[in-house]
Amino acid sequence: MGRVAGKKAFITGAAQGLGAAAARRLAEEGAKVSLADINHEGAKRVAAEIDAAHGAGTAFAFPLDVTREDQWIYALEEADAAMGGLSVLVNNAGISRGGNIEQLSYEDWKLVMSVNVDSVFLGTKHALKYLRQNPPGSIVNISSIAGLIAAHNSPVYNASKAAVWLLSKGIALHCAKQGVDVRSNSIHPTYIDTPILDPLRQTFGKEEAEAKLGRQVPLGHIGEPADIANAVLYLASDESKFMTGAELKLDGGISAM
Ligand SMILES: NC(=O)c1ccc[n+]([C@@H]2O[C@H](COP(=O)([O-])OP(=O)(O)OC[C@H]3O[C@@H](n4cnc5c(N)ncnc54)[C@H](O)[C@@H]3O)[C@@H](O)[C@H]2O)c1
Fold first, then answer.
1. Which of 23, 88, 110, 124 could form a disulfide with 33 if both were Cys (CB 3.0 to 4.6 A apart)?
2. What are phi and psi of 98, to 5 degrees?
3. Contact by Cβ (8 Å): 219, 190
């Protein structure tokens, strides 16, 4: 039996990077997975790979712009029907825009806040009615170490990921107070090898960019998608049944300094 056998997980931003890695890892451990992404073709490709590895009917793909309430309502309803329920929500889709407080445009501020924060609000608001029907449920929100530690040049990324951190706790307390068996926790990675780092790779070249980032990490290198997928697996599984309103920092030691 897999560690999440029988679980039914909905993962946003699952066409690539950490979302795709989480979907693959959950499927390996017995879950059904719904991959939702604004890049529907990409989500379909990853779902097809998962089905090829674990059998047809393991993975499903849905188009979803996480900033759109109407699309959330439709995608969750479809995923619940396809998987025969919903017990795990992974709010993973997220973007970043650089620029310090004086450089950042208001349009970029609103875009990042919407993709990173509105998504968690909308997804959780509409998923809870399904999650409470399939207890124990788990909400896993992908924040960032940048939600706990600020930098001079990422005000909107810092603010959005800090919002996800505390929103996760508020959701946890709401569910606990209501006696709803749904946990809510956040994950805080440092730099992980995904396409989100491509702008930096384009500026400095792949090796130099990764070395530059690695020098900021006490362990000396950036992380792999599997490092985060394993944390998602733990929080999605009943192994974490006494953990709610908490944060898991996967930062190679950065926050220990
Ligand atoms: N990789 C890192 O270094 C790192 C570190 C800390 C936190 N994170 C967080 O992890 C999450 C995943 O990051 P990643 O590295 O896999 O990024 P990524 O850019 O590789 O993938 C992000 C995915 O989200 C999708 N997406 C973007 N906007 C969307 C929208 N409006 N609706 C639906 N889907 C949308 C994209 O199509 C893409 O498939 C993000 O929330 C990111 O902030 C990443």
1. 23
2. -80, 180
3. no
In a domain, 1, yes or no: no
User: What is the model's pLDDT at position 16?
Assistant: 98
The domain that holds 153 is classified in CATH as 3.40.50.720
User: How far is the centre of ligand 1, averaged over its atoms, from the C-alpha of 10 (Å)?
Assistant: 15
Domain extent, residue 80, equals 8-256
Ligand 1 pocket by Cβ (under 6 Å): 12-13, 15-19, 37-39, 42, 64-67, 92-95, 115, 142, 144, 189, 191-192, 194-197
CA of 17 to the centre of ligand 1 (A): 7
Catalytic residue among 106, 130, 157, 191: 157
Residue with CA nearest ligand 1 atom 21:
17
What pLDDT shows up at residue 1? 83
- Tell me, what's the pLDDT at 118? 99
**Is 2 a member of any domain?**
no
Q: How many domains does the chain have?
A: 1
**Letter string b/e over residues 126-159, b meaning 16 or more CB atoms within 10 A of that residue's CB:** bbbebbbebebbbbbbbbbbbbbbeeeebbbbbb
The span from the CA of 15 to the CA of 47, in Å, is 9
Q: Establish if 218 belongs to a structural domain.
A: yes
Q: What is the mean pLDDT of each run of 10 residues along the chain (257 residues)?
A: 97 98 99 99 99 98 99 99 98 96 98 99 99 98 98 98 99 98 98 95 96 97 98 99 98 97
